[in-house]
Design goal:
Blueprint (H helix, E strand, L loop, with lengths): L1 E7 L5 E7 L9 E7 L3 H11 L3 H8 L6 E4 L4 E8 L10 H4 E8 L3 E6 L4 H11 L7 H14 L2 H19 L7 H31 L5 H63 L14 H23 L3
Parallel strand pairs: 3-7
Antiparallel strand pairs: 1-2, 2-3, 4-5, 5-6, 6-7
Helix pairs in contact: 4-5, 5-7, 5-8, 6-7, 6-8, 7-8, 8-9
Length: 317
């Protein structure tokens, strides 16, 4: 396989990669056209040239479209999403966390469309421009999907380290500002990735059903299994850590309520006695007793000791 050239338009929006002299049984050549930041008119012109359906062009223009696989008459349409390394820290939706790549392909052409410069596309193009053998657009598509999945590995590893840090600090009872909020955001991010991977799996499975499998496709499946496994483990860890944090918070609340209850149990009978002798009635029999005051103080002390011993036998203090 020989790579002839990179062709740029004057606006530097369209990159055409011409693949010729493919060393395959069919001796077939095909072209790869990568379109970055296209206008609607540019997509319509491309649709006329390659007979692309209008509904699929509308999907290309929708930046929030989810992954899909659509089989057309003599071509196929795919949408995949890769991680956006420029996304906001607290981004928690598929549209905010990822960027879309739309793909049209047939026997003799491959078209990739994206709104921003794509590191995935650039990486795949560089791989095949350095002499790697490519027998069909299917090989390139498998590589694009595989590299798109791999863009999630570093963010997943970062989240995994954050969870380990939170877990250690929680069990050491270190105060962490906005911990509950941070755990919720992490759980939400992982859930979004799980959902995205499920949709992506449906795409490459339908892709595999329409083509004969090869080594590149098997590598794609291995990558998916690895990323999915990591995501499941992190999701379970975040879910467990969130439950542990809520349980520990409830336990702390219960401990505080227990202390308050113990104090209330000590002071409630004493307050009752003081309240009685604080009433301003003229005739109270104990008021005329010479040792009434020290007697009632001793009685209150004994009552406190009895309550303390009872709590001790119960194991409450």
């Amino acid at each position: 396989m020989c790579l002839e050239a990179f062709l740029f338009s004057k606006e530097k929006k369209v990159i055409a990669i011409m693949l010729i002299n493919l060393k395959s049984q069919s001796e077939h050549s095909f072209s790869w056209i990568d379109v970055s930041m296209p206008t609607e008119q540019e997509l319509l012109d491309l649709a006329v040239k390659y007979n692309l359906p209008e509904t699929s062009i509308k999907d290309c223009l929708d930046p929030e479209h989810l992954p899909k696989f659509e089989q057309l008459e003599d071509k196929n349409f795919i949408i995949i999403r890769n991680y956006d390394h420029l996304c906001e820290i607290n981004a928690d939706s598929i549209q905010k966390l990822t960027r879309k790549i739309a793909i049209f392909y047939g026997k003799d052409f491959l078209i990739t469309i994206h709104r921003h410069e794509s590191l995935v596309i650039n990486g795949v193009a560089k791989k095949y421009s350095n002499g790697s053998i490519c027998k069909s657009p299917f090989d390139i598509i498998c590589k694009i999907i595989k590299d798109s999945l791999q863009t999630f590995e570093d963010p997943l590893n970062i989240i995994d380290k954050e969870i380990d840090s939170f877990e250690e600090r929680i069990f050491l009872k270190n105060k962490i500002p906005d911990l509950l909020k941070n755990l919720y955001i992490i759980k939400r991010k992982i859930y979004v990735k799980k959902r995205l991977f499920t949709l992506t799996k449906a795409v490459f499975e339908q892709l595999g059903n329409s083509h004969k499998h090869n080594t590149i496709y098997e590598d794609l499946k291995d990558t998916y299994v690895r990323v999915e496994t990591i995501t499941e483990e992190i999701y379970d860890s975040s879910h467990s850590l969130l439950n542990i944090y809520i349980s520990l918070s409830s336990q702390k609340t219960n401990d505080v309520m227990r202390v308050l209850t113990v104090f209330s149990a000590f002071f409630l009978p004493l307050t009752f006695i003081v309240g009685i002798y604080g009433m301003n009635f003229q005739f109270m029999p104990e008021l005329s007793q010479q040792y009434g005051y020290p007697g009632i103080m001793i009685f209150m002390l004994l009552l406190t000791i009895v309550i303390y011993q009872w709590f001790s036998r119960k194991g409450w203090i």
